[in-house]
Amino acid sequence: MNVNIEQGWKEQLKDEFEKPYFSELVNFVKEEYLKNRCYPKGSEIFAAFDHCSFDDVRVVIIGQDPYHGPGQANGLCFSVNDGIVMPPSLVNIFKEIENDLGISFPSNGNLQRWAKQGVLLLNATLTVRATQAGSHQNKGWELFTDAVIRAVSEKKENVVFLLWGGFAKKKGAKINRSKHCVLTSGHPSPLSANRGYWFGNGHFSRTNKYLEENGLININW
Q: What is the pTM of this model?
């Protein structure tokens, strides 16, 4: 099956694209986009991979679903398009960066600038129906994104995986911790953050410290 995705990822995931589940997933997504309003727009479904090639991956952040509100989702987890009000989880991410690194709040929540530095912003499910969180779960996306995580874990070294919240921790259960750095904390959503499970995790400075210790360029958060 010909999937329009960055060439390095295409090579790593070529076996997935030939599996029956992926063919069924493609048919489901096509039907959903035909009949319903879905996010992100079709050309941005694989944006996380297009903005961060396989060769460039140094950090992986795992999200759950794309945002399901108008104009929000752009194919990168936690990220929103330019000019869109930042959702609460993203606000808390920037608050932690400010506390951790002293970097002031950005003017927008578009995280393409992270992706271009080697941060893979991976949602477990890459599409969603408008206003219906979780509507495209258990259709095959999770199998595909498990294969993505497995490819990074097996084929690369010294990658930092940031697992925020129970869902991401389960998703990252099979990462080879002997050759990668895995940092976990609560989710940045207000429910978790306000109970003390997010703020103060220091993940952004700890990520850069690990990258530097392994001779890699740190991330300009």
A: 0.96
Q: Looking at the chain, how many residues does it have? A: 221
CA distance 204 to 31: 39
DSSP the chain: ------HHHHHHHHHHHTSHHHHHHHHHHHHHHHHS-EES-GGGTTHHHHHS-TTT--EEEEESS---STTT--SSTT---TTSPPPHHHHHHHHHHHHHH-PPPPS---THHHHTTTEEEEESS--EETTBTTTTTTSSHHHHHHHHHHHHHHH-SS-EEEEEHHHHHHHTTT--TTTSEEEEE--SSHHHHTTTSSTT--HHHHHHHHHHHTT-PPP--
Catalytic residues: 65
Per-residue pLDDT tens for 63-94? Answer: 999 999 999 999 999 999 999 999 999 999 99
Least Cα distance to 45 among 9, 8, 73, 78 occurs for 73
Q: Tell me the CA distances in angstroms from 4 to 26, 155, 205, one per residue in order.
A: 12, 22, 35
Residue 127 CA: distances (Å) to CA of 4, 137, 184, 201: 16, 9, 25, 29
CA-to-CA dists, residue 45 to 73, 128, 185, 205, 217, angstroms = 10, 10, 27, 30, 28
**Residues contacting residue 191 through CB under 8 Å, at least 6 positions apart:** none
Query: Six-digit token pair at 68?
Result: 């399901």
